[in-house]
Amino acid sequence: MNASSTGSATATAPGSRPVRIWVLVTALLVACFAFQLNASMLSPALKNVEDSLGATTAEVGLTQTAFFTSAALFSLFLPRLGDLVGRRRVLAAMMVLMAVGCVVAALAQSVPMLFAGRVIQGVSGPTVPLCLIMLRNEVHEPKRYGTLLGVITAVNGGIAGVDSIAGGKLADHYGFHSVFWVMAVVAALAAVLVAVLTPESTAANAAETRMDWPGVAILVVSVGAALIALNEAGKLGDANWPLVAALAVVAAAAFAVFWRAEDRSSHPLVATRHLRQRSTWALLLTTVLTMTGVFAVMNGMIPAFAQNADAGFGMSAEQSAWWTLTPYALAGLAMGPLAGRLAATLGYGKVLRFGLVGSAATVALMLVTLQADSRALLLVSSILIGVTYAGVANIVLNGLGIVLSPKEGPGVLPGLNAGAFNLGAGLSFAVLFAVQTAAAPADKTSVAGYSAGMIAGVVLIAAAFVTSFLIPKPVTAEEHA
């Protein structure tokens, strides 16, 4: 199972007009922008949400969890649905529903209504993988595809930090509702551009295949239970551990049922023979390990350390964003296109391992940053993790999900890989924060807890480096002399 047939295993709708790639890329980029705004623009406005709705921090946090859980679950099957009924149709519908969810959230006067809006917005979860599949259907030259893959995927790491900063300023001046109205406008624009400017395509065997809805339902239960368990475990001392254990059992049992059901299905969501292949399980394992090792470090520990007045720099939330998340996102955005091109030229595996080694080395450098009273070192570390993780490892892992997908189901592996990204993100906060909490001493000026969490991150990234050697080479996605 490799990329060799992915490009030829798709069918463009009869009568469709020739595609100008820059027009296609423009439409796909706007769709990715729209999704990224939904994922990150609200974060700095959460305090405003609490105050406006009279809600608790936990209640507002639950609405964020609802969005990311919904996004993860829809990612499991919407790319495959696009294979069968048309990718443009599915992506445009996702954008429309995302706009509807934004409007619901913008009109919210209570937490339940906001919760409902965020769940609807989560339909947009597989935007990036679906865009990459549509791009792959039109661009077959490896270097060009690799470059454009990097351009589109880099947006997934944040729109140069502008999304978060704009969200905070909108909330401060006009309230959190204005953030959702902006999201709604961009989502509506994306829906129009996708519907008008992109060609329709399906998998080559779409006419003879039907959607495996029973398999979808079982897999959603399995992954959903796992994600909810991880979210609960992330509460650490306040977690309901019997509930976590019960959900873990449900997740495992549902996956066992899913495996048996797929073995017997004439039209499985994902054939078990593919699940047994290294192109599937090794990629998914590497993605989970990478995300677990890096995600909470850059999106939790480092910003928290920057804002910690006792052990860190005592920055405000906005200052912290300028010193950490914004340079991180900018570096990833700049590096992404180059990483995609290098993957096609030097090999996806080599470039991925470069990103993983660089990520591990940078997290190790962050250990030095914890001990040094140097904002410059904090900035350098943030830029380097932006280059190595957001700009290289993240790009290549997303790309491998496309170029290694089976020819009869180009949307299968990207959907599973999107689920692996979300699972790894959840595990990262649960595992690394648990290590940090366990190692934190009573002395508030100590950085021992942060150090322990980051050391655990380095170990997990090293494990991802090892498993990356098990991922097969996507031969036709790479150029050879």
Describe, in plain words, how this protein is organized in 3D.
The chain has 19 helices and two strands. It folds into three domains: 182 residues, MFS general substrate transporter like domains (Growth Hormone, Chain: A, Up-down Bundle); 57 residues; 210 residues, Up-down Bundle (Growth Hormone, Chain: A), CATH 1.20.1250. The two termini are 23 Å apart. The longest helix is centred in the middle third of the chain and has 30 residues. α4 crosses α5, α5 packs antiparallel against α6 and α15 runs antiparallel to α16. The chain has a two-stranded antiparallel ribbon with strand order 1-2. It has 481 residues and is mainly α. The radius of gyration is 21 Å and the shape is globular.
Tell me the total number of β-strands.
2
Low-confidence stretches: 1-11
Name the CATH homologous superfamily of the largest domain. Answer: MFS general substrate transporter like domains
When the domains are counted, the total is 3
Summing up helix and strand content along with how strands pair, one would put the structural category as mainly alpha
- Inertia-based shape: globular
As a percent range, the share of helical residues equals: over 70%
Strand content: under 5%
- Enter the CATH topology name of the largest domain: Growth Hormone, Chain: A
Number of helices: 19
CATH C-level class of the largest domain is Mainly Alpha
Cross-sheet strand order for the largest sheet: 1-2
What is the CATH architecture descriptor of the largest domain?
Answer: Up-down Bundle
The H/E string reads: EHHHHHHHHHHEHHHHHHHHH
Average the pLDDT over all residues and give the rounded result.
Answer: 88
Radius of gyration: 21 Å
Largest sheet features = 2 strands, antiparallel
Distance between the termini: 23 Å
